[in-house]
Amino acid sequence: MKKKLYIETYGCQMNVADSEVVASVMAERNFEISDNQEEADVVLVNTCSVRDNAEKRVWGRLRELNALKKSNKELKLGLIGCMAERIGDEMLEDKVVDIVAGPDAYRNLPYLYDKSIEGEDAINVELTIDETYDSIIPKRMNEGISGFVSITRGCNNFCTYCIVPYTRGRERSRDPKDILAEVRDMVKNGYKEVTLLGQNVDSYKWMPEGTTKPVRFHHLLELVAQESPTLRVRFSTPHPKDIKESVVKMIAKYPNICKHIHLPIQAGNDEVLKRMNRRYTVEWYQNRVEMIRKHIPECSITTDVFCGFCGETEEQFQGTLDMMKWVHYDTAFMFKYSERPGTYAAKKLEDDISEEVKGERLTRMIQLQSSLSIESNQSDIGKVVEVLVEKLSKKSSDELCGRSSQNKLVVFPKKDAQIGDYVRVKIERCTQTTLIGEMIEKIDAPSF
Ligand code: 5AD
Ligand code: SF4
């Protein structure tokens, strides 16, 4: 009989993609995915270490799962992902979990499970320079419309605040052949959207054997876009220091590459950016935004930004607010700085901004972004946008929702449209987070 595996995923899109790799590895070894934790033989928690509150959430969840183990003595609890890499050894020692696998050790999970059954230590947190999970076709677990494919793993940037280079190791690119095989598999299974993932997609580079010309990110984008005109292509995340005009031109060239760039700014002051080791200036970032707008005036631009980094003065924080206004982001993910043990900032810079000031600055950022998002959505009223229908709207089963090319959430009355269709919607109203309109027509594929 097959054993049952329950996977829970926290953190970034990369973790969602990794959970699908894990599901595939386990499926080959007689496990089937279950959506019921009560009946599971093994529960794997795929975790994030990027901020302390992400880890706190996982700690809370592990306590609940340990309570579940009291009623199911056979249950094995596994910690995977970034927390496994960072503190998995301690958690195994303290018997908080039975299995620990870091981001490069997922092929090893069936073996680790067997070891845990035998009552032995089941841990692998080795980071490699070459694991990219090639030849594993991820087992998709979502609704079957939109999925992720990772194109690089790891990170070499070493932003001083960031734990990722330590938990995910050195950057490596995947063979375009494997990437395209995954994309083809998605198309075959009726998927309509793929998001290409990497910590810094612009540094994607693959040297095909016997050649001297590398495949770069813009080439890869083109190959994926050409795979099927009915497959929308997105990507995350570019780095402002590396994003190239060639990439932006490629987005402009193909109707099925979405007109949305998520360009993390992190801070809007040169001294702070230098302390963060971001390796660009405010002026450079502005120049990149102008370059994007020159080629794709309708492109939406979104960002990650955080306040309260070591030594951030009120004036420097104002620089961040000024930049948010200057770019006029469509949406933003906003955070308070959270010191991560082992990073350069934790070792060499003082976390000297009080929680109170961090909280107050975050509130101001969120307030500003709310008004920018509303203005951005209001400017869409009267426009026609192309939407990939993803699901029924939360509020009413007579309404559908999906995302525009600009990645905005769009809700509209159902009529004869179905999940998976491309439709044109005329926008009539909006809220801060949603565009609301009427469907005009169905279309076969993205067209602008
Ligand atoms: N504290 C707060 N935010 C962080 N991020 C990364 N590291 C930290 C940290 N130590 C944010 C950045 C990044 C996003 C994924 O999380 O904005 O782009
Ligand atoms: Fe993803 Fe970074 Fe969180 Fe790891 S630490 S899960 S790479 S966001």
Annotation keywords:
single chain; alpha/beta; pyruvate-formate lyase- activating enzyme; 3 domains; six-stranded parallel β-sheet; five-stranded mixed β-barrel; 13 helices; binds 5'-deoxyadenosine; binds iron/sulfur cluster
Please outline the helices and strands.
Elements: E1 3-9, H1 13-27, E2 31-33, E3 42-47, H2 52-71, E4 76-81, H3 82-93, E5 99-101, H4 109-117, E6 122-124, E7 146-150, E8 152-153, H5 164-168, E9 172-173, H6 176-188, E10 193-197, E11 205-206, E12 215-216, H7 217-227, E13 232-236, H8 245-253, E14 260-262, H9 270-275, H10 282-295, E15 300-307, H11 314-327, E16 332-336, H12 344-348, H13 355-378, E17 384-392, E18 399-404, E19 409-413, E20 422-430, E21 434-443
Parallel strand pairs: 1-2, 1-3, 3-4, 4-5, 5-6, 7-10, 10-13, 14-15, 15-16, 19-21
Antiparallel strand pairs: 8-9, 11-12, 17-18, 17-20, 18-19, 20-21
Helix pairs in contact: 6-7, 7-8, 11-13
This protein binds 5'-deoxyadenosine (5AD) and iron/sulfur cluster (SF4).
